[in-house]
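Dear H.,

Thanks for agreeing to be a second pair of eyes. The structure we're designing against is below in token form, covering all 793 positions.
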């Protein structure tokens, strides 16, 4: 009895603390929230929306509203994206009827502009609207009237309302894209935040003099109305009911307006439950082609080009000879990776440059000279001889357009008829520090004087003596000699002590492999800045080679479908690798777990892995064969984007090399036959492994299942071919309603997989071709019968 009373007393003591952490209902004058570790917040009555602080980095907080019952806590409104609040800042509904965000020193960071005085209380509503209310329950201010980048059901925009995209995916400061319901009734999208440069629209509703209000209604449709309230023009076509799905429409950082839905409560086991799913067509459908600015960079940054991905999202790339300005934001543009052509007439350099072809690529509206009736050879000669020419576009009609740096409006698309000729320096193409002839001559003279001086000779002798001494010392200290890592990777280095502290003495294990164990860690004082720390096993020759391989291979890669290597520790006998943390674990756990992932998500993962492999095989400076593609080496981030990990077994090839000889690497069940036949291996071994993985993704089961009730189904690839040969592909997904309704794509994926697992490596397509097959960009020919998978085990 005493113990029961004690529990009741403890419960009563803790109730006020819980109430402080999350408060529902009206907020009276004096109510406040503090940006600290307690994560206090104001909830809507149903608990579906939250008003409070979100951490945006070490000691920085964003005042925001988000979906509370969704795993990723999607933000729908923010107050201070351009001026993040430091730790200890406070938002308070002050006694003088103002809502004020102030830093710990009392300096005001943000406060809404009220049109009238007399705030009596505030409230976080179940619609996602945060309101300041008078004594008579009149809304004196509301977030619905001051949107950031998102629109919610029941929200309405009047003429003059402006919506700004954020700067990047995780940066909530104001970006360069926005749309506005103009005072004349036209809904217009702009690619610049500067009103003086807003003459170029990339999408418009064409409702000038008739549009009056933009509405997101409860049936899930966004549309424009006339002044009398009649529907004037639908903006989106979605009609998913809001009582079953959360919904939002957002102008994303890439400038595209998209509408998303997410199932509620009991629908959480549905096909859409794995995250937000886009419904309705994006606006504009192809932003790469829609933006043709006379001022500005276009859809992507300067000197880059835009390509529409299979997910209808714009992707920004650098042309040959150019590298990204900011590796964390692909939309920031590119810079030349070489010295531009000299315009000094006494030093002609025409023989030091080559013109790289890019088909169906253009940088429109950036010409400084145009010439008609040209041949391609004459166009090439004209650009080569012109020191101002960075790119020439040879049109199908014989026209030649010369372009200077910076390049703008870049795009590649099947609709483009031009061929881009990109000028790139042949020699010293990555050097920007080469001096002129006089400087070189001066250096030669200085060097000669030093070499002939007595002091230099003595210094040289001392250096040789020191090196000899070090070589003898190194024999005794070989076990603590750090592995040599190419410093050109530019990655962060950590001390062993730092990583020991970051992982809390290597406390939480995430997984383990042949060469080491992976632990969860957190960098700095930011408790959400998680990383994965891979501790390599005891120092053997092979583990050191693996360390060098992984750092060298992945340190120079930069692709959204590869796990990012953040840094490493190379201290004494300690070899550790620090990766970005992938919150959703491995594809193996995701695919073979208790609940089956949606067909849509499985197709996205297949395309993600294909793109990552295509990059490794063809787009890296050193082409890379992964050698161990399997579900355990595919990781999933917070949005379930698939990323390839574990390049420890990778084989690097030179740019002109296509195959190599090496010992067997990888995991049984995913190994190509040539591994067992002492044949030179090529990137086609990854293609074979991907084929096995693709079949597993299609059928949502492991390739080898000895407990299968039907003997023909024990080996999945054999059963897959039997079903394809018999015209009964539907059997593979018959228990999957979503996949069964998309049987055309299922058949395309099956045919692609059967091409991948051909016994003859020369019959297998490249990963680039496979990506096109999966995306439906090319027709998949009828595959021949593959050899039995079991014969290669």
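And this is the sequence the design step returned. I haven't edited it by hand at all.
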């Amino acid at each position: 009895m005493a113990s029961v009373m004690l529990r009741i007393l403890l419960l009563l003591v803790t109730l006020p603390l819980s109430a402080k952490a999350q408060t529902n209902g009206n907020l009276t004058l004096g109510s406040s929230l503090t940006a600290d570790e307690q994560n206090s917040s104001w909830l809507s009555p149903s608990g579906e929306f939250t008003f409070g602080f979100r951490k945006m980095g070490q000691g920085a907080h964003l005042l925001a509203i988000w979906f509370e019952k969704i795993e990723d806590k999607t933000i729908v409104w923010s107050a201070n994206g351009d001026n993040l609040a430091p730790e200890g800042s406070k938002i308070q509904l002050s006694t003088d009827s103002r809502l004020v965000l102030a830093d710990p020193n009392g300096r005001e960071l943000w406060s809404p502009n009220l049109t009238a005085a007399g705030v009596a209380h505030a409230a976080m509503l179940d619609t996602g609207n945060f309101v300041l209310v008078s004594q008579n329950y009149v809304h004196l201010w509301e977030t619905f009237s001051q949107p950031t980048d998102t629109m919610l059901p029941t929200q309405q925009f009047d003429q003059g309302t402006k919506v700004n995209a954020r700067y990047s995916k995780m940066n909530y400061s104001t970006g360069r894209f926005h749309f506005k319901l103009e005072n004349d009734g036209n809904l217009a999208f702009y690619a610049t935040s500067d009103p003086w440069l807003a003459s170029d629209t990339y999408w418009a509703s064409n409702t000038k003099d008739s549009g009056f209000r933009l509405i997101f209604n409860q049936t899930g449709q966004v549309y424009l109305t006339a002044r009398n309230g009649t529907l004037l023009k639908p903006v989106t076509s979605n009609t998913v009911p809001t009582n079953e799905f959360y919904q939002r429409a957002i102008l994303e950082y890439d400038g595209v307006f998209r509408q998303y839905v997410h199932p509620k409560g009991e629908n959480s086991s549905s096909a859409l439950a794995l995250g937000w799913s886009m419904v309705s067509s994006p606006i504009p459908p192809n932003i790469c082609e829609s933006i043709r600015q006379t001022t500005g960079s276009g859809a992507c940054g300067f000197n880059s080009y835009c390509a529409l991905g299979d997910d209808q999202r714009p992707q920004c790339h650098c042309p040959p000879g150019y590298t990204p300005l900011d590796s964390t934001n692909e939309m920031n543009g590119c810079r030349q990776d070489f010295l531009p052509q000299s315009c000094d007439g006494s030093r002609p350099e025409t023989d030091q440059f080559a013109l790289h072809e890019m088909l169906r690529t253009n940088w429109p509206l950036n010409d400084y000279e145009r010439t008609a009736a040209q041949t391609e050879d004459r166009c090439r000669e004209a650009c080569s001889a012109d020191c101002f020419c960075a790119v020439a576009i040879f049109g199908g009609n014989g026209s030649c357009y010369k372009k200077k740096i910076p390049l703008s409006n870049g795009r590649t698309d099947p609709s483009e008829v031009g061929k881009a000729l990109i000028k790139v320096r042949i020699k010293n193409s990555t050097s920007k520090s080469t001096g002129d002839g006089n400087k070189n001559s001066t250096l030669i003279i200085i060097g000669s004087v030093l070499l002939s001086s007595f002091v230099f000779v003595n210094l040289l002798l001392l250096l040789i003596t020191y090196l000899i001494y070090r070589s003898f010392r190194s024999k005794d200290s070989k076990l603590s000699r750090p592995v040599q890592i190419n410093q050109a990777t530019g990655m962060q280095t950590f001390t062993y002590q730092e990583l020991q502290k970051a992982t809390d003495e290597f406390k939480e294990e995430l997984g383990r492999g042949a060469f080491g164990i992976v632990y969860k860690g957190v960098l700095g004082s930011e408790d959400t800045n998680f990383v994965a720390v891979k501790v390599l096993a005891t120092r053997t020759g092979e583990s050191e080679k693996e360390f060098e391989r992984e750092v060298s291979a992945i340190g120079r890669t930069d692709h959204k479908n590869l796990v990012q290597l953040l840094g490493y520790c190379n201290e004494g006998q300690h070899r550790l690798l620090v990766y970005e943390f992938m919150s959703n674990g491995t594809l193996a756990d995701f695919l073979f777990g208790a609940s089956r992932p949606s067909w849509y998500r499985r197709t996205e993962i297949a395309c993600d892995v294909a793109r990552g492999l295509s990059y490794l095989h063809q787009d890296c400076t050193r082409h890379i064969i992964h050698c161990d593609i399997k579900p355990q080496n595919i990781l999933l981030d917070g949005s379930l984007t698939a990323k390839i990990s574990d390049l420890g077994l990778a084989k690097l090839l030179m740019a002109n090399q296509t195959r190599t000889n090496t010992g067997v690497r990888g995991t049984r069940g995913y190994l190509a036959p040539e591994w067992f036949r002492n044949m030179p291996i090529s990137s086609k071994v990854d293609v074979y492994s991907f084929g096995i993985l693709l079949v597993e993704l299609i059928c949502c089961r492991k390739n080898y299942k000895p407990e299968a009730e039907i003997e023909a189904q024990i080996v999945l690839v054999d059963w897959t071919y039997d079903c394809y040969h018999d015209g009964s592909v539907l059997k593979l997904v018959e228990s999957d309603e979503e996949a069964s309704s998309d049987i055309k794509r299922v058949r395309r994926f099956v045919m692609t997989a059967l091409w991948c697992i051909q016994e003859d490596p020369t019959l297998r397509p490249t990963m680039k071709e496979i990506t096109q097959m999966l995306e439906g960009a090319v027709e998949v020919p009828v595959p021949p019968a593959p050899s039995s998978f079991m014969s290669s085990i």
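Two observations from my side: The mean pLDDT is 81. The longest strand covers residues 49-57.

Warmly,
E.
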